[in-house]
Write a structure and sequence with these properties.
The chain contains two helices and 34 strands. With 507 residues, it is mainly beta. It has a five-stranded mixed sheet with strand order 2-9-8-4-6, with no helix packed on it. Strands 19, 20, 22, 23 and 24 form a five-stranded antiparallel sheet that branches. A four-stranded antiparallel sheet has the order 1-3-7-5, with no helix packed on it. The longest helix has 29 residues.
Length: 507
């Protein structure tokens, strides 16, 4: 017990000693003069001859002493830039603060460029017989960019129903050679920036998935305001593969439709996927194929088998997917529907070739008789020619040795493989959206495309997205990769049930 009692005494002594040691340091840390304010985070971008006077920008001097102090305030700016100070010497009462508003004036002849600017103060320690002793210095610094000409940007991001999204936004300046230079960033879904006239690109992301991409050009003194509607639901990798009757190679049974529905942003209620079918560009039918009370935020890989309600016919069938979110009343009746996403069209051509009916159904008895008669006449012709050759001269003839056939020339692009590397992903099968690696949408991750040199132009159709113009909204069409045409279904080659698209010729 005595030992325990002694240990307790020692512990109390040590705690008391530590308290005596720490208390003076704590009291000392609370005293002093500090500086803060929005000036250090306000990045000025001004044009020559501009004045910036806003209550949002200030410098705050804090006095933590138990007595008042005096500060001498001054600035450090480049030539042609001034920050007028109303009161060069200020008194800060004990345990209080003084807010100093900052006004910036840039002269007309200030050289354009980027500068460091300062607001500083020095502590006046004492005043004796008209002599001022200057002590410690306190300062805030920020960046000033002076522009010859400028345009103001105000860009925000909303979802399909107009609700703001706190998306990550990256602003890039497009150089004349086409390269991109990062210029500004926002993580609030709202970007306010001053830029020089030129071409720009803004990208918006949510969870590293690209929601929207917007290219634009601004002129001097332009006030450019834009609300970008993000695509928070995406439909892609849509394919339509023919499925033939078992044991046949040309009797069509059904079409296998596969696609990806990607919900990126938030859970959606009362959603549905609708399938629209066109037959020779005439609307055939439209029906809902997937219904969701709640659609989760994730990538949904979906598929179904399709047969027209009236059966297949000799025609070109075109399929389009649409994704809707419905507003319903208490009884489940749809009051309003909002289209969130639409897929690119895919086609299935049954107009050429016998893909779903037997051969006999296309020929009448008269047609069969004509075919038989033509075959008999051809047989008589070849028999007569053979007999005449036998009746000819029986004189010996020198044997004729046929010249060896030249090997067919190989394609210079694919060397006979009929495939080349995908021009979009350079054969990797992968593309990047932000920092997320995805399957290349052009080659569906195969990494290979059909060699354009080996394709007969008759086997091509006009690209359904760009209508042969090679561009969509001024950018290279991503569906045909800027070619303006794609492969028809009859010639399409498949790898692992994936239809291979047409690739560019090598130059």
């Amino acid at each position: 017990m005595k030992i325990i009692s002694k240990l307790k005494s020692i512990s109390i002594f040590l705690i008391a000693a530590m308290a005596l040691f720490l208390l003076p340091a704590t009291a000392y840390a609370k005293e002093g003069v500090g500086v803060t304010g929005s000036f250090s985070s306000y990045k000025y971008k001004v044009v020559q001859g501009e004045r910036v006077d806003t209550p949002q920008v200030n410098v705050v001097f804090i006095n933590n002493y138990n007595h008042s102090v005096q500060l001498k305030i001054y600035t450090d700016t480049p030539e042609g830039v001034t920050i007028p100070i109303d009161q060069e010497v200020v008194t800060v009462a004990a345990n209080s603060r003084v807010d100093v508003p900052v006004v910036l004036i840039v002269a007309e002849d200030t050289l354009p460029g980027t500068y460091d600017i300062w607001v500083k103060a020095k502590l006046i320690e004492d005043i004796e017989e008209g002599r001022i002793n200057i002590g410690s210095e306190f300062a805030l610094k920020t960046k000033l960019t002076v522009l010859g000409e400028a345009a103001d940007l105000d860009i925000d991001v909303v979802d399909e129903v107009g609700e703001p999204i706190k998306a990550i936004m990256n602003l890039y300046q497009i150089d004349p050679d086409g390269s991109r230079a990062p210029l500004a960033y926002s993580d609030r879904g709202h970007l306010v920036e001053r830029v020089i006239p030129g071409e720009y690109e803004v990208l918006a992301f949510w969870n590293d998935y690209q929601l929207v991409k917007h290219n634009f050009t601004v002129a001097a003194d332009e006030q450019y305001s834009k609300t970008l509607v993000a695509q928070t639901v995406q439909l892609y990798s849509f394919t339509a593969h023919p499925v033939f009757v078992e044991g046949t190679e040309n009797e069509l049974a059904t079409a296998n439709l596969r696609f990806i529905l990607h919900n990126i942003y938030r859970e959606l209620e009362d959603a549905r996927v609708s399938l629209i079918v066109y037959k020779d560009d005439e609307l055939l039918e439209q029906k809902d194929i997937f219904l969701y009370e709640k659609l989760e935020v994730k990538k949904h890989e979906l598929g179904m088998y399709y047969i027209p309600s009236q059966g297949w016919d000799r025609a070109e069938y075109k399929f389009v997917l649409q994704f809707f979110v419905d507003e319903k009343d208490d009884n489940g009746n749809i009051l309003d529907s909002k289209l969130y996403a639409e897929s690119l069209p895919v086609t299935l051509d049954t107009s050429s070739g016998l893909t779903f009916k037997k051969l006999s159904e296309f020929f009448s008895p008269q047609m069969i008789l004509i075919v038989i008669l033509a075959a008999v006449l051809a047989g008589i012709f070849f028999l007569t020619k053979y007999l005449l050759q036998r009746a000819g001269s029986s004189a010996p003839k020198s044997p004729i040795v046929p010249a060896p056939k030249a090997a067919p020339a190989l394609c210079p692009d694919c060397h006979g493989e009929e495939e080349v590397e995908c021009p979009t992903c350079d054969g990797t099968g992968k593309t990047y959206y932000g920092s997320i690696e995805e399957e290349c949408l052009y080659c569906s991750g195969v990494g290979k495309v059909v060699c354009a040199t080996c394709v007969n132009p008759k086997q091509l159709i006009v690209c359904p997205r760009c209508n042969g113009n090679s561009k969509v909204d001024g950018e290279e069409c991503s569906y045909c990769n800027g070619l303006g045409h794609v492969l028809s279904v009859q010639y399409a080659r498949y790898k692992g049930d994936i239809k291979m698209k047409l690739g560019k010729k090598k130059r």
